[in-house]
Amino acid sequence: MxxxxxxxxxxxxxxxxxxxxxxxxxxxxxxxxxxxSTYVAWQEILKxxxxxxxxxxxKQKEVTEYR
Length: 67
Fold this sequence. Notes:
The chain is mostly helical. It has one domain (2-52). The protein is 52% helix and 0% strand. The chain contains four helices and no strands. The protein has helices at 2-7, 11-18, 22-31, 39-49. Helix 2 packs across helix 3. The protein is globular and about 40 Å long.
């Protein structure tokens, strides 16, 4: 998570992108996950950065098989 925030420009840049205070990004880091509501926006950032991150960082579940 720290690496992802760093690659996205650091806490201040991420805060500006999500229109939150930088301390909010720090709270995300302390909790060890991002708010689920930021998942779609982060997917765009990941695409820009050409990296991936586990869905668990947003409390999302990976679907491996549908029955």
